[in-house]
Specification:
The complex is a heterotrimer of chains A (499), B (126) and C (424).
Chain A: H1 16-19, H2 39-43, H3 60-71, H4 94-100, H5 103-106, H6 118-135, E1 139-141, H7 147-165, E2 171-175, H8 181-188, E3 192-196, H9 206-212, E4 217-223, H10 235-244, E5 248-252, E6 272-274, E7 295-297, E8 309-313, E9 316-320, H11 337-373, E10 389-392, H12 394-397, H13 403-412, E11 419-420, E12 429-432, H14 440-459, H15 461-465, H16 478-483
Parallel strand pairs in A: 2-3, 2-4, 4-5, 5-6
Antiparallel strand pairs in A: 1-7, 6-7, 8-9, 10-12, 11-12
Chain B: E1 6-8, E2 13-18, E3 21-26, H1 28-34, E4 37-41, E5 48-49, E6 54-60, E7 64-68, E8 73-78, H2 81-84, H3 88-91, E9 100-104, H4 116-125
Chain C: H1 2-5, H2 35-47, E1 54-55, H3 68-74, H4 77-80, H5 92-109, E2 113-114, H6 121-136, E3 140-144, H7 149-162, E4 165-169, H8 180-186, E5 191-197, H9 208-217, E6 221-226, E7 243-247, E8 263-267, E9 280-284, E10 290-294, H10 301-304, H11 317-351, E11 364-368, H12 374-383, E12 386-387, E13 390-391, E14 402-406, H13 413-423
Parallel strand pairs in C: 1-12, 3-4, 3-5, 5-6, 6-7
Antiparallel strand pairs in C: 2-8, 7-8, 9-10, 11-14, 13-14
Helix pairs in contact in C: 3-11, 5-11, 6-7, 12-13
Classes of the chains: A alpha/beta (499), B alpha+beta (126), C alpha/beta (424).
């Protein structure tokens, strides 16, 4: 019984170019208060373009209808739960949107004289302090634009630190359960990747680690809790082995939503880590970005942080470029300031106690989901999980139904799918992270939907395998999209079967 | 299913030797595992390849698989038709959808490879 | 719920954690604030940032009017709080707008394909350089000094470990355009790409065709960067470029003290599989309806892991959507008119000052400060509530008696007259 959604008429809409026609306008510029310049005279005729071919021309009302109609074809957190594992799809507070748009913050130019940027710098300094406290680390850079960018920054810091000690070393150890950005990052930083097999318990195998960590190992990149949602209970021992052999421990902070206020990476041996502001700290995903990937380090790595660094000079903030050992810049200017504002607003709203409560709720929600779904779906790893839980589709696979199919059927029930087929160490993985945002009511709806689907797999597997049935469009042909890519609109090429 | 005059590798490639030329492809088992193939990345003519080392890759929507050369030598021809029609690899992996032709540098290497019968039991057992 | 989990209390959820890792005190953060207190805190900070000043700063970040429709659209929860569109059936809103974005970037730049955005213009540069290295199999990069200094700094950081050998070539002291002879001398068979910016950091339009000829003759690619997207409304796109990479901040993305912005890479069809970043493609669903989906994902990190074209995961979807709305509101005619206004404003201002270079400029130019120190001139301007140009000495010691000034459609004539007075 599908309770969360019902069919409804949604508007069709063409592409902008298909509703464009010459002469329509949605803009009005003020009259020029200076003499108009002839572009050919000013720039040279060869530098002046002809018109922008096929660029759209629509009226304001057509523009607003276009985007509004398109927006109704999306699912979003504002509609309901996203059980996506390791994405931490929590509520995006609207007060954050308001404060980020305040004129003094939104219009500040990065090259404004420092005397006119103290407000912005104060915000960044306060966020650095808060994140250092939350992570138990000594210093924070807010420069990286997103998680993967933070990872790269972190590994470059590792390299710079080891280089200064005399030998950057050659490889980075990465568990086979890691997110794809981890090995990709290691490669860009010039390191070879060695994959670590997880033990049957699902965590790092300390026994083999002693031999695997050689003088060639620069660092181990760990996610904690790992992508199974399980805390790496040997982490202190892991850190000790690495440090004893002169290597460093990097932590991917994607799963911090399980730790804030409960445990601090700096306290369990992590030397450098990144955070995802768009996960743990509620900044909106916006359909795929922007994000924010601050990096926190222990004091040994502080000298290498990207420039510039915020420095207190008397009673003012200033940007300090005089840092000889810095790895340099990882992007222009100072960071995704607009995202940083939102993250700080989130932290201020919760305070220390509120942040801890959020963690407790997040972990409770995930455990509740686990307990209620265990009778219906296989749980390959039995250790206690924290903020997320990973099931396997083994039981359903026996009926020819895989995790991807179940995920698509979940759409018919009014939910966004969980994370499909990740981590790779679980066959047919179904990774579920409810976050603290979801109430018992919403969780129960989700659980009921999953139970109902499990029953459908038994009684009518075809229904699940061909889902979704209730959406505007059914499953798309990804194969043709990849074989013969069409990556832009062209005039007279699309046939008339638009919606 | 698996032609007797081919030799096979454990990574699911095949090679058919004619004099000093080896024609190389991936097996039916491999294309089944990959699912719908969307793209094939082949080396340039003239590239030197080594037995056991990657000479290119095959892609489905969600996965990439390296192709490991069963023999060492020089690439003398590649199958251009796969650029426009990678789906051939799903339809006729042992025939029309051969990948490359290699001038063998050491014909004796073929002895290390599996026979059709060996390969059949290998994939039967997997 | 605790009963269902078989637990005594919520703390028991963490009982399995080793004692040694547990935080045994509350976090040292202030108690949670109310919505009003949060607004007050940020309002106070905002008031310390000179919002009421007129500004003539450009240098990679531009003050352009943001149509009201932009925030109206991006504030819709369906766009704001949606996830990456991996599940095509419930993400057609996001996917369609990205497809339109890719198309409009191609139309503006004259390239065949464009990605769904990179973090920003500065990180798009090393991504483009690495792309050129993959395509050519070579490792030499020649970057013009007239490319934004911070962009070059980012390129240097990435290049250090990617086996790229970066060298710089100069600009003409007279025209402010690239020194073609210097470029020619440094080009060799190991060069993967030449990187120039147009309009360049000094605001000057470059000799793109000449640079392309030199590069292509030696088997190198030409990468053309842009930081001022509005220039595309009137400037001939760099058709001879192999890769165009740039920053879209000018398209209704608030300056926001440095970010978030949206970069983009556009290129020729034959290079698409080497291009990093997300791509949206057109396809059909099982009933034959047109639909869009993420495609060519095998280039990306979640599949190829260490062999990926980049480690990038995020694109800047919401920011790119702002650019979409901007481009839609202005449209074909509006973008041209906007660019023309910018050109006219800057020419008016330059007419009252002493431009340093003779080359043709768009909405930025370098002005001499007539023997006075740029800092002194800017101090005088601040007293008039005007933020002056960027003193160039910090990036180009040879230009320490000059400032980089930008005039856009938002600078009024009286402001420009007032600024010019301070230079006398």
């Amino acid at each position: 019984m599908i309770k969360k959604v019902r069919s409804h008429l949604s508007q069709n809409e063409t592409l902008l170019f298909e509703r464009s026609s010459p002469g329509k306008r949605g803009y009005q510029l003020p009259e020029l208060d200076v003499p108009v310049v002839d572009p050919a005279d000013a720039l040279g005729a060869e530098n002046v373009r002809a018109e922008i071919r096929d660029f759209p021309e629509v009226s304001e009302v057509e523009a607003i209808r276009h985007f509004t109609r398109l927006s109704t074809w999306n699912y979003a957190i504002d509609h309901g739960m996203y059980p996506l594992g390791s994405c931490t799809m929590k509520y995006n507070p609207r007060v954050n949107e308001l404060v980020a748009r305040m004129e003094g913050l939104a219009w500040a130019h990065p090259y404004q004289p420092e005397v006119l940027a103290q407000g912005a710098m104060e915000i960044m300094a306060r966020l650095e302090t808060a994140l250092a406290e939350i992570t138990g680390m000594d210093a924070v850079t807010l420069q990286p634009a997103a998680g993967a960018h933070g990872e790269l920054t972190g590994i470059l810091l590792v390299r710079a630190f080891l280089e200064r000690r005399g030998n950057p070393r050659k490889k980075i150890l990465i568990p086979d359960s890691a997110h794809g950005t981890n090995p990709a990052t290691a490669a860009i930083a010039g390191y070879a990747v060695e994959n670590l097999r997880s033990s049957e318990r699902g965590v790092l195998d300390v026994g083999t680690l002693e031999n695997v960590v050689t003088e060639d190992v620069a660092a181990l990149m760990v996610t904690n809790p790992n992508t199974l949602g399980v805390f790496e209970d040997n982490i202190i021992h892991v850190a000790e082995i690495l440090h004893r052999k002169g290597a460093l421990l990097y932590m991917d902070g994607a799963n911090m939503n399980a730790l804030v206020g409960i445990a601090r990476p700096g306290d369990f041996g992590v030397d450098v880590m990144h955070l995802n502001l768009h996960k743990t700290f509620s900044t909106p995903h916006g359909g795929g970005g922007p994000g924010g990937g601050p990096v926190a380090v222990k004091k040994e790595l502080e000298p290498f942080l990207p420039i510039p660094r915020l420095k207190r000079s008397g009673r003012k903030w200033t940007w300090n470029y005089r840092r000889k050992l810095s790895i340099g810049r990882v992007r222009a200017f100072y960071g995704n300031f607009g995202v940083l504002v939102r993250a700080l607003a989130y932290i201020l709203a919760h305070g220390g106690e509120g942040l801890r409560n959020a963690t407790v709720d997040a972990v409770l929600n995930a455990n509740y989901v686990r307990k209620r779904l265990e009778p219906y779906y296989d749980l390959p790893y039995k250790l206690p999980n924290m903020h997320e839980v990973v099931f396997s589709d083994d039981r359903q696979a026996a009926r020819g139904v895989r995790t991807g199919d179940i995920a698509k059927r979940l759409i018919d029930y009014g939910f966004h799918p969980y994370t499909v087929s990740f981590p790779l160490i679980v066959r047919g993985a179904m990774m579920i992270e409810p976050t603290e945002t979801e109430s018992k009511l919403e969780l129960d709806q989700f659980i009921d939907a999953m139970i109902s689907i499990a029953e459908e797999v038994e009684s009518d597997p075809e229904l699940v395998k061909t889902a979704p049935h209730g959406t505007r469009i059914s499953r798309v042909d990804e194969v043709t999209a990849a074989r013969r890519p069409v990556l832009r609109w062209k005039p007279c090429c699309c046939d008339a079967t638009a919606r | 299913m698996y032609p007797d005059n081919f030799r096979y590798t454990k990574e699911h490639e095949w090679v058919r030797v004619d004099a000093d030329t080896g024609t190389v492809g991936i097996t039916d088992h491999a294309q089944k595992e990959l699912g719908d193939i969307v793209y094939v990345d082949l080396p340039k003519v003239g590239t030197r390849v080594e037995q056991g080392k990657s000479l290119g890759s095959v892609e489905s929507v969600k996965a990439v698989s390296e192709i490991y050369s069963p023999v060492s030598g020089e690439v003398i021809e590649i199958n251009q038709s796969l650029a426009d029609a990678p789906e051939k690899l799903n339809l006729d992996p042992h025939g029309e959808a051969w990948l490359v032709k290699i001038r063998l540098s050491d014909a004796a290497q073929v002895k290390d490879l599996l026979t059709a019968a060996d390969y059949q039991s290998y994939v039967g057992a997997e | 719920m605790l009963d269902v989990c078989g637990l005594e209390n919520a703390e028991a959820l963490f009982g399995h954690l080793p004692e040694a890792v547990r935080l045994k005190r509350p976090l040292a953060l202030e108690r949670g604030a109310s919505e009003y207190e949060i607004i007050e805190y940020f309002r106070d900070r905002a008031s310390e940032n000179g919002a009421e000043y007129a500004s003539f700063l450009g240098a990679g970040v531009y003050h352009h009017y943001r149509p009201v429709l932009v925030d109206t659209v991006v504030s819709r929860g369906e766009f704001l709080t949606a996830y990456t569109p991996y599940q095509a059936e419930i993400s057609q809103g996001t996917l369609t707008t990205i497809f339109e974005f890719q198309t409009m970037i191609c139309q503006l730049t004259g390239m065949d394909v464009a990605n769904a955005s990179m973090y920003d213009g500065s990180t798009a540069v090393p991504e483009a350089a690495m792309m050129a290295a993959r395509i050519t199999g070579k490792g030499g990069i020649l970057a013009a000094r007239s490319v934004h200094p911070e962009y070059r700094a980012v390129l240097a950081t990435y290049a250090r470990y990617e086996g790229l050998n970066i060298q710089e070539f100069g600009y003409s002291a007279e025209s402010g355009q690239i020194d073609l002879e210097d470029l020619d001398r440094r080009l060799n068979e190991l060069t993967a790409a030449v990187i120039i910016q147009s309009p360049n950091f000094f605001g000057i339009v470059e000799k793109v065709k000449a640079a392309a000829d030199l590069a292509h003759r030696r088997g190198a690619l030409l990468i053309v960067i842009f930081t001022e997207a509005v220039s595309l409304g009137i400037l001939e796109p760099a058709a001879e470029a192999d890769i165009i990479a740039g920053e879209l901040q000018s398209f209704a993305i608030a300056p926001s003290y440095g970010g978030p912005y949206a970069g983009v890479i556009a290129t020729k069809e034959k290079y698409v599989r080497q291009m990093p970043g997300r791509l949206v493609g057109e396809t059909r669903d099982t009933h034959g309806n047109r639909a869009f989906c993420l495609t060519l994902s095998t280039r990306e990190q979640h599949i190829r892991r260490e062999k990926a074209t980049s480690n990038i995961c995020t694109n800047q979807a919401l920011i790119a959507l702002m650019a979409n709305v901007f481009m839609t509101v202005y449209g074909k005619q509006g973008l041209r008119e906007l660019a023309l206004q910018n050109l006219s404003k800057a020419r008016y201002l330059a007419g009252k000052l002493k431009p340093r270079f003779t080359g043709p400029f768009f909405n930025e130019f370098v002005a001499l400060t007539n023997g006075r120190s740029p800092d002194a001139v800017n101090k005088a301007l601040l007293r008039k509530k005007i933020i002056g140009g960027l003193p160039l000495g910090r990036f180009y010691p040879e230009l320490s008696g000059s400032v980089l000034l930008c005039a856009t459609e938002m600078n009024r004539r009286e402001q420009m007259d007032s600024l010019a007075e301070a230079f006398q």
